[in-house]
From TrEMBL:
Basic and acidic residues bias (residue ranges): 145-164
Organism lineage: Bacteria, Pseudomonadati, Myxococcota, Myxococcia, Myxococcales
Origin species: Cystobacter fuscus (strain ATCC 25194 / DSM 2262 / NBRC 100088 / M29)
Keyword annotations: Signal
PROSITE patterns: PROKAR_LIPOPROTEIN (PS51257)
Name of the molecule in the record: Type VI lipoprotein IgE-like C-terminal domain-containing protein
Amino acid sequence: MRRAALGLLALVLGACGPSQINIAVKSPVGTNMGRPLYMLVRQVDPKQYANEAYSEVAARVGVPDTTVLQTAVIYPGTIQRFQVKAPKEGSVALSFLFTAPDGNWQVLLSPPLASAVDVELATSRILRDTIPQGPSLDEPPEAPKAPEVKPPEAPKAPEVKPPEAPKLGGK
């Protein structure tokens, strides 16, 4: 009975999502033309997120509201890691405030929230974002395993029957 209760508790807690989100941000040297930039992590309504202007989001850096979970300065040429307390419900937006954004500058994390996300920045936009299944951005990827190749079997020699000896005539 006690094991069943513990199992149920683990299931309920697991269904609620992670208590923290681990964020890894890879920022190459040329990111934001070599200048630091802000990252803003906040709880969002997906509909509102889709219609927000860059200037509205940028204003929250100086005057954060209750939706802001964390702000951080991202330095070009680094890999930085952050742990953010996950909201109990709702989506989370990661916004990168480039000096001159050119393309995607935000990532939306929808429920169920992942416990980790990797983001790689480019000069003026987000290059890629992934929910890692393996090593994070600063760990080299594992080399793909070569397929197992079995050596070919040697051809089997045909079965050869010795010739029958001639029968000698006699009584």
